[in-house]
Amino acid sequence: MKQLLDFLPLVIFFAVYKFFDIYIASGALIAATALQLVISYLLYKKLEKMHLITFVMVTVFGSLTLILHDDSFIKWKVTIVYALFAIALGVSQIMNKPLLKSMLGKELIVEDKIWARVTWYWVSFFVVCGLVNIYVAFSLSQETWVNFKVFGLTALTLINTVLTVVYLFKNMSEEDRKELK
Questions:
Q1: How many CA atoms lie less than 13 Å away from 66 in the CB half-sphere?
Q2: 80 and 12 share a domain?
Q3: Domain shared by 101 and 160, yes or no
Q4: What is the per-residue pLDDT across 82-116, written as a single tens digit (0 to 9) for each?
Q5: Could you tell me the pTM of the whole model?
Q6: Domain that residue 35 falls in
Q7: Are residues 63 and 75 in the same domain?
């Protein structure tokens, strides 16, 4: 259920874009992200920081898109969110308080050097995706960008998540791996 909830705003944005335009889709994205927060709170009695950050970014950049009737803002939102994630991960690693380890370290027990590699891998991933988003958003058609945002970035993120889990699993002790099964 939680994973479906994570994709709700993206699905609504895409569907509304296909039937209307980027501006109505941006408004729908704002509403869907707000709805995501409400549903998440009702179901889990808490709000995740990532959802809150995303909501603020969607609201700010979506509103600018609507008010100024300029789709550049909603396109930049993707890159800025990725940059914030990269910065948060990088700073947490530099401060020896890796976010990924704090989120997953209880279930996936690996050495700190492995968490560092995974963290820097994700920092690099977010930076590259942010840069590619800029290229696609401002060099190709709006429809190509929407498809890239919805399908390309989502697929890349899912693939990288699977690769990360496999890498972490391979670097776990045999005993810890057995406990997961």
A1: 14
A2: no
A3: yes
A4: 999 999 999 999 998 888 888 876 777 778 899 99
A5: 0.88
A6: 1-70
A7: no
Regarding whether 104 and 84 lie in a shared domain, the answer is: yes
Cα radius of gyration rounded to whole Å, the chain? 18
CB atoms inside a 10 Å sphere around CB 131:
13
With tokens 């690099």, the residue in question is: 124
- CB 83: neighbour CB atoms within 10 A? 16
SS3 category, 45: coil
Per the structure, how many domains does the chain have? Answer: 2
Q: To 10 degrees, what angle do helices 49-68 and 22-44 make?
A: 160
Contact 109, 172 (CB under 8 A): yes
CA 101 to chain centre: 17
Tens digits of per-residue pLDDT, 126-157?
Answer: 999 999 999 999 999 999 999 999 999 999 99
* 81 and 158 assigned to the same domain: yes
Q: How far apart are CA 170 and CA 177, in angstroms?
A: 9
177 and 109: one domain? Answer: yes
Assess whether 174 and 88 both reside in one domain: yes
Tokens of 148: 């890239």
